[in-house]
Amino acid sequence: MKFGWVLIIVFVLIGNYCIAQEIKKFTAIRTDYSPKIDGILNDRVWNEVKAASGFIEIKPIPGRIESHDRRTEVKIVYDNSAIYIGARMYDEPDSVVKEVVTRDQLGNSDILGIVFDTYLDRINAFGFYVNSTGAQFDAKYSQSGREDVSWDAVWESQVKIDSLGWTAELKIPYSAIRFGSNDVQQWGLNMTRRRQKTNQQTSWNFIDPKVAGFINQEGELNGINGIKAPLRLSFSPYLSSSMNNYPHNQLGVKNTTSTFNGGMDIKYGINQSYTLDMTLVPDFGQVRSDNQVLNLSPFEVRFNENRQFFTEGTELFNKGNLFYSRRIGSNPAYSANITSKILPNEIIKENQLESKLLNATKISGRSQNGMGIGFFNAVTKRGYATVQNSNGEERLIETQPLSNYTILVLDQSLKNNSSASFVNTNVLRQGSAYDANVSAFLFNFNNKQNIYNVNGAAKLSYVGPESPGNSATNGYYYEIEAGKKSGNFTWRYSYDLTDEKYDPTDLGYFNNNNFIRNSIDFGYNSFRPGKIFNRYNTYLGIFRTERFNPRTYQSSRASGGGYFEFKNFWSVNMDFYRQFIGKDFYEPRVAGREFSTPASSFGNFTLRSNRAKKYNATATISARFREQFSGVGYTAGFFQNYRVKNRLSLGLDLNTQPQYDYSAWLGVSSNKDVIFSRFDRSTVESAMDATYTFNSNMGLMVRLRHYWSNRRNKEYYILMADGGLQSHDGAEFKGTHTNYNVFNIDFIFSWRFAPGSELSLAYKNVAQEMETENRIGYFQNFDRIIGLPQNNNASLKILYFLDYLQFRRR
Prior knowledge:
Shape: globular
Oligomer: single chain
Strand content: over 45%
Number of helices: 4
Number of strands: 47
Largest sheet: 28 strands, antiparallel
């Protein structure tokens, strides 16, 4: 640890060069006659104002001024209700790439983007983008360009393609953004354009790729005076109906069930800085199915969050990585304990897979002095499993107590793109079920030139007693990182420590505790095109981990690799590492035991074609060699996409992962021996998708996925006290092979029939099976899963956006 602190102090205090860059400034003009948003720049106001121009290339040649015949001109005006953008992108009409996609997608198209940093803190910003076919995309930015793409605002835009290229008009109402109460406003501003055909990206104020972040490299917008934040109040009521069919074919159990739901989302601007969002009786039946996999590790699988309320505008709540939103409304907390509570003559008749979310509320925003505040609260309903005895009598077993989830975040923006934060998460459960609490202090400091960075965290966890007579546990975790993040040469050193009692998993995601980890990484990056490459990034790194209590060596690794983009915009990724002999304290899954992990070597090669082409593909191959049992594993993947027409695209993904002579935990025998096995494993995943977009507000998507993975045990071993494996001479352990299949179909049609309003129709089909059979062969497994009973679900949802101000005018 002493060595780490010396590195931090020495390198952070060392000075470095900084490329002097002029900050561009632009003045917006107040107008008394706002333009019509039709994509045609013939309004009187556009003829009376000057344009911002002189865009500078970010890639492939950083610093090059865009050519006159491909220039970009942007004009900005405002009135008492909104800010307006009129933009002309000069180009040959046939050179404008124009794939039709729906909202929140940009596709294979030309793009114009406007980014406003309304508090001029060079950390937080709002981004509004349109592509050449009119699709809208918006995002919130924080902490040197972290992008929250799930954030949605209600705004207007139109585009037109003509003989000079293409044009765009945008109307951003003040209700869509947050700004201070000053009479004279000064905002950060940048504008960006992408010419997809030539893979060119330009910006109004130059974004130097050698400098970390891009919000901190913005220009300034002046001239906005006398505007006030409007009353921000909107309602989004919804109605939904669904029908589900599964062939239970059991007496007293319905094969087909239906539901009818209604609820509402509410958004209210508490003041010009903070917003309240609330969802009442939400319905998330329209979200895409999870990619279920066979998990043989001791750690849980982390799934992506697809529910909009838990993804939109949550950048504050993600501070410190303490919020894993899938904990809310996911699997009931005690559903896995049901088998221990049922009687010998009872069976499980019904066991809910998800806990019911009653409501959720979040308050978030940032004041003029840079104080960000986030408050989140959600309540889930009590849940039960129904069990039935041989006489037909039923009883309920609680699987989910009434639970309350709370998050509080205080985040203060500081000079030089720096910040300090406090985060607290809390879970309260009704009755005797245990409660949990985690608190964290975070800091992120940069020097004036934004070249050096120090960041860190200190976290404390509390988990209440699970039953009377047990005691609560308190744990801690802290980390610190320092490094050089800008320039061609970069480096980073990090130190992490967690004790054996730290546990944030009631509302967060954390794989394991009780370790000390040191790592250092070096990188060299080139951003200017040469004879072979447009740009490349290379890295070298080493890390070492130890168990914290009792203190002992755990593992170490050396790695290297890089990303290389060729002149034709094809690219290559290469990664290599050497894992040295170590000790695994988690794989035995019994406290106090360890497994001696073998040394291994890994290599990966990935080739990607030019993504701007109608047909583009990615091929990847990797190999891992384990010294124990001469184990070897391969991965081969081929992912391709073909844009048949501007409205239709097809995708096909194939991935296979054969493994031979691997070793891992299998179970615990009747006499308490920890059993490992040497096994072969086959994993094949295939997915097909098709998207057809009628226009920028209407589209449909179809996706089919089949995943098969198995484990075929060959020999059995007993884990010894020293971590080694001793051959098991007894009979074969029956029922220990694993064969898992899952097949999904997702069909989703969406129509945004008015700003903020949407109709969506979803159909989902799923079949899955976990067997102890040693079933070999992909097509044999595919035939098996297709022939099994399948769950079919169809749902319709209509959501209508009501803005209070518009409603009052009417």
